[in-house]
Amino acid sequence: MRNPVKFFIYHALFFTALIIQDTHVSKSFFGEESPYIYYIALCLLFTSITCFSGVITNPGIVEENCETTPFFCTSCQCRIPVRAFHCETCRKCIRRRLHHSEWADQCVGLETQLYYFMFLASEFFFLLFSIIEIIVSLCSFHQIQSENRIFGWISNYFLLLIFFPFLVFYLIQVFILFIQHAFILLTNGNVLGVKKRFGIMILILQKKERNPFDLHLLDLNANQVFFHVNNRVWEVPNTPEMKDYISDIHQCGIDYISE
Fold this sequence. Notes:
Layout lengths: L2 H18 L3 H6 L6 H21 L14 E3 L4 E3 L4 E3 L4 E3 L4 E3 L4 E3 L4 H26 L10 H39 L3 E7 L2 E6 L12 H9 L13 H10 L4 E3 L3
Antiparallel strand pairs: 1-2, 1-9, 3-4, 5-6, 7-8
Helix pairs in contact: 1-3, 3-4, 4-5
């Protein structure tokens, strides 16, 4: 089963649990006037759309016989465009590659960076609303009308109790990625690698002072992602930062051929 399919199934199961269990979402679903279900459903819908868009969109795969540049991929044994990187999972070079997304089973690259950023934003609010809803529901202990209130509480919310720790862990992962992608977007930054700590994926970002592509204006950097302004072909800037960039990407299997 592919990761995007798992993603949609897990979200559908959790949304079903919110409806089955005694929650505000359930009450709203069955007729009580409440905005909770609309918040959750809207976030879930937007999350699904952005994730699906990222899955079906070509992230920017480098075709053979692309334009000549001084950058050489040691894995593909060919010249690649400026800011293209090789993906070991896709086994291809991707233009402006940031990292490989396990959720979309696709690289986050030139054409999918915006979708992925919007996905992280909508997923963050979906998880935040869901966790708040679970906490509010679990705090309704005094409403349980049962001789054994503990047993009644567990039977009313056992699905939410199962989902809760996974949602908290997932929220931490999404929040970290969202902050890092926001920084990349605003600084026109580069990703040099990925590491995991306690199962949480963390991007290894190139330092801002070593990034030759930073336009030093937030709107100009953001325009390259949101409106694709001058983001197709980057020139090789003759700056001290470019030497730092060349040194940093060497660890990613990218050689610089000056001749």
